[in-house]
Write a structure and sequence with these properties.
Largest sheet: 5 strands, antiparallel
Radius of gyration: 17 Å
Distance between the termini: 29 Å
Helix content: 10-25%
Bound molecules: ligand GNR, nickel (II) ion
Length: 190
């Protein structure tokens, strides 16, 4: 396992159109890459990551919405010298290889999105509220799944990365410019 470097704007590699994972690439190297992407995502932390965000232009993405498990005992943890409890989370890592969206809903949903490649910037984005995704797992088996809510939004955000598109590309030119200016300012202050 390894934590990989996440590319950030304005890295031109984020504009790459990623290529399909070929039949002979469903091997241990692909599983290792998916593992490393999940570890990188949990470490960031984020709820999704596309391979191009770690510099690999392949149609592979990972998602974990980390739902809070209502049945789990709260976790007691100690850091910064004091103890506190927080809800336990159930890890639900998902890996999508060569995903394709079919029948996106005509109805849109708006969510305040962020992106590990555009750190500390958040903006509302409208996307189809539900969709169905066809994809392969790490063994190359084909699946189809109906998505809604956060999962539908997150998958569409990740699939944009495969086309070299960032969530800020969905904003007006003015809002995008303001967002990038804010990011520059944050970086200069850091
Ligand atoms: O961690 C992330 N949070 C998020 C919030 C709202 C909509 C989409 C996302 S995905 C993002 C991680 C990321 O950059 N994935 O590409
Ligand atoms: Ni992103």
């Amino acid at each position: 396992m390894a934590i990989l470097e996440i590319l950030e704007v304005p890295d031109p590699r984020l504009k790459t159109i990623s290529v399909p994972v070929e039949a002979d690439e469903f091997n241990d190297d692909l599983k290792q890459l998916a593992d490393d992407m999940l570890e990188t995502m949990y470490d960031a932390p984020g709820i999704g990551l596309a391979a191009i965000q770690v510099g690999v232009p392949k149609r592979l993405l990972v998602i974990d919405l980390q739902p809070e498990d209502p049945d789990a005992e709260p976790v007691e943890c100690e850091h910064d010298g004091h103890k506190h409890t927080h809800p336990a989370t159930k890890f639900e890592p998902r890996v999508f290889v060569n995903p394709v969206i079919v029948d996106p809903a005509e109805e849109f949903a708006t969510l305040n999105e962020g992106c590990l490649s555009v750190p500390e910037i958040y903006a509302d984005v409208d996307r189809p509220a539900t969709c169905t995704v066809k994809y392969q797992d790490l063994d190359g088996n084909h699946h189809e799944e109906a998505l809604e809510g956060m999962m539908a939004t997150c998958l569409q955000h990740e699939m944009d990365h495969l086309e070299g598109i960032l969530f800020i590309d969905h904003l007006s030119n003015l809002k995008r410019k303001m967002a990038l200016k804010k990011l520059k300012k944050i970086r200069a202050a850091a």
